[in-house]
């Protein structure tokens, strides 16, 4: 309500209007007529004066009320009145302060302040004094904090929760880098990987080069934001280890009739390298019924599959050209020209899962420098003597496993598929035709010039011991006997008793 403190001034104005006389003139006695007129005019004067007083009073009062009117706000949370505040800025300052407090209390977690829906309703009142302090204290008790994390899902299954999506992406990138290093640091690492895979690395061959063709996580990996408890958010290092190691479940397997290392690996969908590493007592792929194998392998949460192209330069061993000289005695020989090794480029495709070699394929070869044949003159041609120049023992041959270390073990030859008919790679005499441990049905040909060739896993033999053969002559049919995991030919070349890489001679 408006209170007027200057009633006396208004009353004085009223009296002045009502009773003012012209004191500059002497008083005159009014006539009856004048008095009558004055008497009639007095109510009009009084009414006008009263109106003037009311106008003055109204103007002064409204100005006074307006000057003392205060604007403020009703604050609502989710539609429910919390109290009065002087300004919305006070509320924002409180929210900012609380957000900073919960963030500092949980530095490794994304904390979100739950304010609900805050709305304001503008109000005005005469000399109002809103109790902002009480309202803000009440609001502070109503605010809650919630941790915000990101779930990491593998094939729809939550494997852990991390701080944010950036952290999840960084962890996944590290998992991939474990098996396929970044370009700026990968050269040396890949060189080591290729050396581990390669057959024989000596001064005779150049170091292999590796090109990463593709790299992907086999499983479907997604992320999703979620409200969690702070203690549920995993440390990035722990989450990384969980993804690459997962769980380990000990697995034992008893060898049964017809088993081999390769087929056991296929049965359990693991790399043969796992079997060799866990059972280092295995020699020359020899396992027997009743042997207990340790097939324990890490079960990572994700599988990183890489496809690499490995390029190697191999030597091409020179062939020996025999010139007959009937004037020379049998067994005598003379070197006319010393042979010179050539070079060829071999490109392999390696598929690995989490660093384990799962498959390999020879993509192609290119002769960089042809070999120069050696020329040797001999007095008498010995029946069954080889030329030293070997042909592919299988028509339409395709390499399925190369010479050297494969899955952690030395592979003494190469594995081939193609036409099922097996042919002698050079002239020679059958030294062995029968069953051998590991090789199953096999043939060994002595080429009478320091070389021997071995043909393993055959299903049928068509030659006998002591039989003389010509290059290209059929010796049997490709099979899956012995320690084999599929129909193919295992082919070896030995020189003076030492095993050789057949790709150097074919």
TrEMBL record:
Pfam families named among the record's database cross-references: G5, LysM, Peptidase_M23
Domain LysM: 251-295
CDD domains: LysM, M23_peptidase
Keywords: Signal
InterPro entries from the UniProt entry: Cell_wall_metabolism_enzyme (IPR050570), Dup_hybrid_motif (IPR011055), G5_dom (IPR011098), LysM (IPR018392), LysM_dom_sf (IPR036779), M23ase_b-sheet_dom (IPR016047)
SMART domains: G5, LysM
Protein name as it appears in the record: Peptidoglycan DD-metalloendopeptidase family protein
Location of the G5 domain: 302-382
Keyword tRNA processing: no
Domain of life where this protein originates: Bacteria
Cross-referenced PANTHER family: MUREIN HYDROLASE ACTIVATOR ENVC (PTHR21666:SF270), PEPTIDASE-RELATED (PTHR21666)
PROSITE patterns, sorted: G5, LYSM
